[in-house]
């Protein structure tokens, strides 16, 4: 059974690290698997407010709070609300950090 399609406003939590995200933009069709650290993400409400797993020494955050991540096609956009050590993926492909659009020159 496939996971339900993500909708704008859905809050998702990782099952392997402390990462939490909000769906900012979702594809109109299809239900891509959104995963973090290799495990599918679950609705944040089912995860509760459990403490994030302890990070082993020197573990750097792979997902950064306040940053937006997009899939290769640009149809799915996630906003990270809690940092974690897992990498975000969509349909098995790594999601990339969304960069700001450059402003036009005002010479």
List keywords for this structure.
four-stranded antiparallel beta sheet; mainly beta; 107 residues; 10 strands; 1 helix
Fold topology:
Blueprint: E1 11-13, E2 20-25, E3 34-36, E4 39-40, E5 42-43, H1 44-47, E6 68-70, E7 77-82, E8 88-90, E9 93-94, E10 96-97
Antiparallel strand pairs: 1-2, 1-5, 2-7, 3-4, 3-8, 6-7, 6-10, 8-9
Structural summary, described in words:
The chain has 107 residues and is mainly beta. Helices cover 4% and strands 30% of the residues. Strand 3 and strand 4 (39-40) form a beta hairpin. The radius of gyration is 15 Å and the shape is globular. Residues 49-58 have low confidence and may be disordered.
Concise synopsis of the structure shown:
The protein has 107 residues and is mostly beta strands.
Distance from N terminus to C terminus (CA atoms, Å) equals: 56 Å
Ranges with pLDDT <50 over ≥5 residues? 49-58
- Which overall shape is indicated by the principal axes computed on the Cα atoms? globular
Strand order, main sheet: write it out: 5-1-2-7-6-10
What does the average pLDDT come to? 83
Contiguous helical run count? 1
- Radius of gyration, in Å, reads 15 Å
Strand content: 25-35%
What oligomeric arrangement do these chains adopt? Answer: single chain
Structural class: mainly beta
Provide the helix percentage. Answer: under 10%
Q: What's the count of strands?
A: 10
The ordered H/E elements are: EEEEEHEEEEE
Sheet with most strands: 6 strands, antiparallel
């Amino acid at each position: 059974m496939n996971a339900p399609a993500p909708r704008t406003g859905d809050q998702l939590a990782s099952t392997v690290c402390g990462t939490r995200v909000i769906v900012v933009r979702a594809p109109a069709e299809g239900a891509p698997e959104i995963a973090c650290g290799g495990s599918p993400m679950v609705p944040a409400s089912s995860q509760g407010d459990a403490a994030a797993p302890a990070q082993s020494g020197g573990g750097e955050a792979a997902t950064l709070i306040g940053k937006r991540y997009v899939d290769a096609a640009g149809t799915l956009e996630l906003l990270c609300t809690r940092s974690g050590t897992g990498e975000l993926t969509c349909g098995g492909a790594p999601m990339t950090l969304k960069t700001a659009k450059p402003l036009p020159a005002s010479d």
